[in-house]
Amino acid sequence: MVTNLLKEVHPADIMVVTIANLLENEEKVFHGVSSQLPMVAILLAKATHAKDLTYLNIPGGVNPQSLQLSSYSSAGYEVYANAEAIFPLEEVFDLSMRGELDVAFLSGVQFDVHGNVNASVIGSYTNPKVRLPGGAGSAVLIPTVKRALIWRSKHDPRTFVEQVDFVTTKGNIDRIITPLAVFKYQDERLQLESISPLTSIEEVVRQTGFEINTDHITVLPLPTSEEMRIIQQIDKKGVRYKEF
Amino acid sequence: MVTNLLKEVHPADIMVVTIANLLENEEKVFHGVSSQLPMVAILLAKATHAKDLTYLNIPGGVNPQSLQLSSYSSAGYEVYANAEAIFPLEEVFDLSMRGELDVAFLSGVQFDVHGNVNASVIGSYTNPKVRLPGGAGSAVLIPTVKRALIWRSKHDPRTFVEQVDFVTTKGNIDRIITPLAVFKYQDERLQLESISPLTSIEEVVRQTGFEINTDHITVLPLPTSEEMRIIQQIDKKGVRYKEF
Amino acid sequence: MKKIISCSKAIATILDGSYLAIGGNVLHRAPMALIREIARQKKRNLKLVKTAGAHDIDVLVRAKCVASVDAGFISYETEYGLATYYRKAVESGEIKANEHACYTVISALNAAKIGVPFMPCRGIMISDLVEANDYFEKIMDPFSDEEITVIKAIKPDVAIIHVNACDEDGNAIIEGPNFEDVLMSRASKRIILSTEKIISKAQVRLNPEKIVIPSFLVESVVVSPRGCAPGSLPGKYEVEDTVIRNFLEKKDDMMFEEYLEAYRIQDQGKGGVFAW
Amino acid sequence: MKKIISCSKAIATILDGSYLAIGGNVLHRAPMALIREIARQKKRNLKLVKTAGAHDIDVLVRAKCVASVDAGFISYETEYGLATYYRKAVESGEIKANEHACYTVISALNAAKIGVPFMPCRGIMISDLVEANDYFEKIMDPFSDEEITVIKAIKPDVAIIHVNACDEDGNAIIEGPNFEDVLMSRASKRIILSTEKIISKAQVRLNPEKIVIPSFLVESVVVSPRGCAPGSLPGKYEVEDTVIRNFLEKKDDMMFEEYLEAYRIQDQGKGGVFAW
Asked: Of A141, B26, C220, D170, which one is least surrounded by beta carbons within 10 A?
């Protein structure tokens, strides 16, 4: 590992590559609003090892071509235009409900070791300290999609807690990807699977509010120059950095 | 009344005019399969007193223009082409379910004095003597549409019975129109309202299997020459006679 | 993953006893080439589902492929009268008629589409059909404590649907009325399409709004020009009147074999694979 | 029965306390001209419903028009962050957040669309939302005796929807994504459309498949060029970045009045009737 190189690498790029590598060819993959990072990852996967992946989104454009990514929206016209078919949001939900959606990208504000997700409130539900935007599709998608991939640009003890304030949903979480680490949900627990080359196990432990087992942890690879070339081509404006 | 004229009048034409006169402007009106006669009546109404009637059908063409009527189908391309919008069958049902469909044309094989409709079987349901085609939309439309108009090209004691063999449906029947007469459903009974000028009260009584009150019966008018001119223009091939 | 296969191969994947959804409505856009191939391959105990069927149901019943039919209406329209073979088979107890209102078939398919066990439905409550059939139940609405009828989901194993055009992956265009075909494509586990023609992927991208069945739902594609004959393809070709009349009037088995044989080359293409 | 009326007249028909469905999704194709007129007319106690809202909800909350919001997600997207006014109003108890999954909003509207009191839904069962809210209930599926969650119907009194074009009777075309607008047009008792432009009936007949809302469902039509601004009309115009930033940053009431005033002529047209 070259220290100079490390300084130039943005955590978002590592997340994009990590997420892309979690997607398989021929999978049907959906993301919702405020999802610029998964959007770039999906396009990277389609440009590399998962050409036949079906890319679904809120406006309903199936596999839209030659996207001009937008920084303020991941549900705009750009993912509708130049599509090969229109398959709108309601239909994507239906697909998940009937067990045929392979991957959905979702987020949340609090996660606990049991795989519970909170996107509703901080504090009490009826008298909240903070009203969050809401889980959007999460409460029906996470329990019904084959694999829910959660990403979150913050990794701190307020995000990864022992017990969430409110269970907006739980279910088929596959992995949670953050700037510091990847958790895998296995044996009914969130387990640390790998860490970013930009961090240390100590930092991950310190920034996580529940106890983690640090055995058998791998370090994520740095993006290759070829991967970076494709990412930059896909996301010329750098919308993937907007959450940071 | 001129006897010569009467000989030239076909019962279907009287039925068409009678049905057309039951339709009001701005009503939303639907017919299904095997419904050539209501189809001609709807077009007659739209061409005369009910220009703003909305005409709905199975293929989903809203207010199709310049129809070439077909003798073998009332659910073909002709009622889809040259429409002003597409509003398919499922949506028409939804419209009725939520109480917004004004008129639906339906039929059946047996009707009794209580307004019950049978389109299912003659004989026992599990071991039928005759298996009928089925009620199509009747079992959900007749109870939910504002006014169900029933037409039937046969009027005999096997059609109008004291008690139907099976209640496929009942509900918001407004009128039943036959070659001999019009029944109105009122005070929870089918009541004879008017008879065709081609028949007599005696014949109607003889051909009806339940008791009817013959007070206050009117005689339907003959189609005017203007009505006949428009009907012939609408239905050049005479598809309205096909059921007879 | 080549999806374009021969009619024979596509139909060979349908197992005896399958729940089969059939596209089209009465005499319009029924996938008759696929239907006849099912008859030729002598599939047995199929459970058919359709809102309003006619010749398609009658052919499969005549070929003794059918165990039950879930439908709101089975009959030719005015001109040709009743579906003779279907009617006789129900009356003799050979097949079971699961009578629906057309809309309750839609409800049952919608339930499968959204992955729930039933769909509530108004209207049907006032019908002897509810008592007579175990796919209708009355339950209490927990919000109002009023009774409502619910329709049991129907999740077909296979849907067979005829389309005007699709690309090699199955991105499909239906011109004219869709009837319940799009719904069936969502409700069913597998989809076999027959198509008048194959179009390029570039043509698909020109009008993505016209793609009513996206490729990721489609298992296989059979190229079947005039695949709805002797029924109609709305806007493209009309009913073959004489064929239907003969089918209804000439009831001996020999005539039925001749009917199947007359369409064999058209249905299967030369050597079993249509040369497109 | 002239349906084209002024923005002011159309909005004047909306009663305080109405259940209001709002078309569009996050910053896209929200009917902002109609929204602002609701704010100007100081409607009160509106119950809003939308899958995913942003500026539209925030404006109505800021204008104190709102009693409750049924939605799956209320936030601007990444670039602009949270819906500040909405969030504060919920936290202070001024308005009630009826939290849904986006799909359960769709379920609730679908129930209204088909005239039933509820819609079954998978997935949501594993959520504290079910216990916390009286519009979710668990019932037994009578066919399998397994539990299923049902979502209470939401039947809006009025839907306000912005379209790309319609004829004088309201036969409407939406270009680009429809989001839940077509569903809302079926679920709601009344529909008020705003439209970029009026097209002739002849233009409508050229492409009946493009008419996603037929005229017989529409009560009134307001001509509103750039009616989604400062939000986007997908494919036509983009977000007005500065307006949104100012709205979110400058929190005093004076600034809000200026915001409403700045759009008044565009929204209402000259003399209250847009000269089209």
From this structure: B26
CB of C207 within 8 Å of any CB in chain D? no
Q: Does the beta carbon of B111 lie under 8 angstroms from any beta carbon of chain D?
A: no
**Cα C268 from Cα A188, distance rounded (Å):** 52
pLDDT tens-digit readout, B59-108: 999 999 877 787 777 877 888 988 999 999 999 999 999 999 999 999 99
| Cβ contact D41:D12 at 8 Å | yes
Q: Tell me whether chains A and B touch (3+ CB pairs under 8 A).
A: no
Q: Which tokens is D181 given?
A: 């607008």
- Per CATH, the architecture of C7-74+155-267 is what? 3-Layer(aba) Sandwich (3.40)
Nearest CA in chain A to D53: A133
How far apart CA C231 and CA C36 sit, in angstroms, is 12
Q: Are C228 and C240 contacting, i.e. CB atoms less than 8 angstroms apart?
A: no
CB atoms within 10 A of CB C157: 16
State the pTM of this model.
Answer: 0.96
- Count C/D contacts: CB-CB distance under 8 Å: 55
At residue A34, the pLDDT reads 86
**Do residues C186 and A87 lie in contact, with contact meaning Cβ atoms separated by under 8 Å?**
no
Q: If DSSP states are collapsed to H, E and C, what string results for chain A? A: CCHHHHHHCCHHHHHHHHHHHHCCCCCEEEECCCCHHHHHHHHHHHHCCCCCCEEECCCCEECCCCCCCCCCCCCCHHHCCCCCEECCHHHHHHHHHCCCCCEEEECCCEEECCCCEECCEEECCCCEEEECCCCCCHHHHHHHCCEEEEECCCCCCCCEECCCCCCCECCCEEEEECCCEEEEEECCEEEEEEECCCCCHHHHHHHCCCCCCCCCCEECCCCCHHHHHHHHHHCCCCHHHCCC
Backbone angles phi, psi at C260, to 5 degrees: -60, -40
Cβ-Cβ contacts under 8 Å, A99 against chain C:
115
Q: Which of C111, C139, C144 sits opposite D142 (nearest CB)?
A: C139
pLDDT the model gives residue D270: 56
B23 Cα to chain C: minimum distance (Å): 23
A33 contacts on D by Cβ (under 8 Å): 25-26, 52, 73, 75, 77
Nearest CA to A183 out of A84, A112, A98, A88 is that of A112
Q: Which domains does chain A show, CATH number per domain?
A: 2-233 (3.40.1080.10)
Would you say residue D275 has pLDDT above 60? Answer: no
Given a contact cutoff of 8 angstroms between Cβ atoms, the answer to whether B77 and B48 are in contact is no
Cβ pair B244, B12 in contact under 8 A: yes
Instruction: Look at residues A97, A70, A195, A239 and name the one whose alpha carbon lies nearest to residue D123.
Output: A97
Q: B97 to chain D nearest CA, in Å?
A: 5
For residue A190, the cross-strand partners are: A185
Over the stretch B190-222, which tens digit does the pLDDT of each residue have? 999 999 999 999 999 999 999 999 999 999 999
Structure tokens at D217: 């469902």
Q: What is the pLDDT of residue B5?
A: 60
CA distance A57 to A86: 10
Decide if B86 touches D, using CB distance below 8 A: yes
Chain C residues touching residue A144 (CB < 8 angstroms):
115
Nearest to A94 among C113, C205, C215 (CB): C113
**Residue D148 touches chain C, beta carbons under 8 Å:** yes
C68 exposed, middle or buried (CB, 10 Å; 0-12, 13-18, 19+)? middle
Alpha helices in chain C (DSSP H): 7-12, 32-40, 55-62, 84-91, 102-113, 128-132, 181-187, 201-206, 241-249, 253-262, 264-268
Global ipTM: 0.95
pLDDT beneath 50, residues of chain A = 1-2
Q: Using CB atoms, which residue from D74, D77, D176 is nearest to A73?
A: D77
pLDDT band at residue B2 using 50, 70 and 90 as cut-offs: very low
